[in-house]
Amino acid sequence: MDSQTWPAAPVPDVPGDVWRWQLPSVHDASRVRMDLRARLAHPSLTSSSTEDAREGLLLAFEELASNALRHGGGAVEAVIVATRQGWLLTLSDESPDRPPVPAVDRDPALGGMGLPMVAQLSVHYGYAVDAERKTVWAQLTSGVPVGGAPTPRGSRA
Q1: Are 122 and 138 in contact (CB under 8 A)?
Q2: Fewer CB near the terminus (10 Å): N or C of the chain?
Q3: pLDDT digits (tens, 9 = 90+) for 76-114
């Protein structure tokens, strides 16, 4: 990621199980995160993804949800498409005229490190706009090689 831009790119069309939430306020992000954590604890997901990958998804959700609620505004919607290879995370808000802008040359203690962190956790990321909404998205891997099993935390593959 160029330190000053988050790439404009269409949201990928990914088949999978769709999870959708509305976030009317900042306080709702915690509620949705708890629901997401519960979904990720389901045995079908724990057997097909690593703990680090699931924690990465939770962190990416928290960062993008916080940005949408604080900097976007209006009705915020979170959608996750769960696939065998990982997740497509999208957060949309009603501010199509305000693209995501990573913090540059800021003391990390002052915040603003969310977009670079999400970029590091993701295999692809970007944002798209239409007349009424902006959608910021990230694709994250399950941490499991195709056809493989999760590597236990702390062990080497």
Answers
A1: yes
A2: C
A3: 999 999 998 999 999 999 999 998 887 776 666 655 678
